[in-house]
Amino acid sequence: MVSGDRVAVAVRDGVADVRLNRPEKLNALDVPLFRALVATADALAADGSVRTVVLSGEGRGFCAGLDFAAFQAMSGDSAGSDVREELGRRLPGRSTNLAQQAVQGWAELPVPSIAAVHGVALGGGLQLALGADLRLVAPDAQLSVLEVRWGLVPDMTGTWVLPRLVGPDVAKELTWTGRMVGGEEAVRLGLATRVADDPRAAALELAARIAAASPEAVRAAKALLDRSTSGADRAGHYLAESAAMGALIGSPNQVEAVRAFFEKRPPSFGDAAPGS
């Protein structure tokens, strides 16, 4: 499992606890952190024992956005040309660049991902949280689509994801103003799933509950729910839904779920089958 000085990862009982690990910089995004996020998501996606992922930040905040040194590179300084090129270069075999994939990787995971947001989630930090399936936020968290301050746009998948969560008008208002949004308002707007006094503890508790369910059923449900919001046609979606159900019925973990319920005991599920 990928774990290093930028991202710390611990997997226990099917729950991957992933933490941004630059607390002295409020977990600001630099090139090594972008690389580590992509590598970590890829490694977790390939690990059949992982059933849920929690993404949080060490220290006083979730993520303050792009590192100040990287901002300086955006100013046109020739010394920053390598940084600009690496962040914007399309990754082999993908439609995303490095910065986009650092966010998209959490959406692409075959298992549920939960962002636990405390302190600040600004600019790229907010976009990173939006890459997760669910977001639990502290009441006093501060979220902002901050790119307009720097003469930029939210280009880490933000312009695609944001209007789908909050609606096009609210997305425009947040993007054009860069105003701060607290935890309670974030839930009302659709930026966050719910408020929690201790988001990481609440996210780990929720992740453990999800991880206790049949892994193929959870993965199939995520794939179908994501498909339903992707613009797929309804008839085709119903066929996909039927195919997923056909694959689940009679499978070992599905049989175990039924037996455990009637035998009044906790189920004992095996890892997800490859490609499920």
From TrEMBL:
Write out the entry's keywords from A to Z: Fatty acid metabolism, Isomerase, Lipid metabolism
Checking InterPro entries in the record gives: ClpP/crotonase-like_dom_sf, Ech1-like, Enoyl-CoA_hyd/isom_CS, Enoyl-CoA_hydra/iso, Enoyl-CoA_hydra_C
Stretch forming the signal peptide: none
Superkingdom, taxonomy of origin: Bacteria
Per its UniProt record, what Pfam families does this chain match? ECH_1
- Name its pathway: Lipid metabolism; fatty acid beta-oxidation
Per the record, the similarity remark reads: Belongs to the enoyl-CoA hydratase/isomerase family.
What is the designated name of this protein?
Answer: Crotonase/enoyl-CoA hydratase family protein
